[in-house]
Amino acid sequence: MGQINSFRDLIVYQKAYKLAMEIFEITRSFPKEEKYSLTDQIRRSSRSVTACICEAWAKKMYIKHFVSKLSDSLGEEYETEGWLDYSKDCKYIDVATHSRLLGEYDEVRKMLIHMINNPEKFCR
Fold first, then answer.
1. Which domains does the chain have, with CATH numbers?
2. What is the pLDDT of residues 63-111, one digit of tens each?
C-alpha cells in the first residue's frame, strides 16, 4: 500500500465517488415524478458512501470513531444497492446496468469491511 495522505488517495473513496457520479448521470433520465423520492434517495445514499469515508478519515486518530463512520458508509452502500433494485424493477435501468453497478458496489463493500476489520492499518 502506497503513501496515503488524504481520503482521496483511498481506492475505496475513488471507486465510490466514481459510482456516485455515474448514478447521478443515470438518474438524470429518471421520470420527473421520482425527483423527490427514488432519484433523491439514490443520489443521497451513493454520495453518503463517500461522505462517511471522508468523515472517517478526519477521525482516524480515534479507532472507534473511524470504524463507526466506516460502518455508516457501509450502511449507505447497502442502501444504495436497495435503491438500485428499485431502479431496475421500475425499469429505469436495465438488468445489465444493475448487475454491473452491484458488482462494483460489491468491491466497495469488501474494501469497507476490510477497513472496518483492520483499522490499525489506517489509523494513527
1. 7-121 (1.20.1440.60)
2. 999 999 999 999 999 999 999 999 999 999 999 999 999 999 999 999 9
Our CA angle for 13, 47, 114, nearest 5°, is 35
- How many C-alpha atoms does 46 have within 13 Å on its Cβ side? 28
From the list 26, 43, 31, 24, the residue with the least C-alpha distance to 83 is 43
CB proximity list for 115: less than 8 A, separation 6 or greater: 12, 56, 70, 121, 122
N-to-C CA span, the chain: 16
Put residue 10 in one of left, alpha, beta given phi > 0 → left and psi -120 to 50 → alpha: beta
Stated pTM of the model: 0.94
12 contacts: CB under 8 Å, gap ≥ 6: 53, 108, 111, 112, 115
Q: How far is CA 27 from the centre of its chain?
A: 16
Identity of the amino acid at 17: Y
CA distance 52 to 115: 13
